[in-house]
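Suppose you are handed a protein chain with no further information: no name, no annotation, nothing but its sequence. What can you learn? This example shows the usual starting point.
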Amino acid sequence: MLPTREQAEALLAEAEKCNPGPWGDHSRVAAHCAERIARECGDLDPDKAYVLGLLHDIGRRFGVRHLGHVSDGYSYMMSLGYDEAARACLTHSFHDRTTDGYIGNFDTSAEELKLIQDALKALSLDEYDRLIQLCDSLAGAEGVLDIEERMGDVKRRYGSYPQAKWDNNLALKAHFEEKTGQDIYVVTEKDSFRP
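A reasonable first move is to predict its three-dimensional structure. Written in structure tokens, the prediction is:
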């Protein structure tokens, strides 16, 4: 189950009051990218893609956490009955369904980490999961970014970026370019869209 666009926008606005920061506009850019790409794919629902992109980082509502934002977002969305949004909170950071290549601090309790790992094991990634992973890698707070520049920025900030995750993000870009038949930066209005 998913909230409506309006409900999702209200959830994000409320969350930003709890923990202000650039993550809100990053989420809006991810939502914009997801909606635009989904519309061009033909087999994905643009409204669903928008809501998933908007809420993928909703766990940041609860404060500045690294891996903790995944469990916070997943648990929060599940508590509201939004299992599809919870899934996006969970899968957006894990291209291989494990926490092994996570970039950032493991700032979860043992219970939170187990929750993430067990939930990841119980699912197979679908096109929406892959779409939100791609859009997370395209979205800056100021607009749509070059994917390699964004990954390079993350690498500089955190000191590393696993090669498998880097390669996966480039493969996702190629996959959705093939699916849409267009340059992903054109689809997402890289040169003109601002949140």
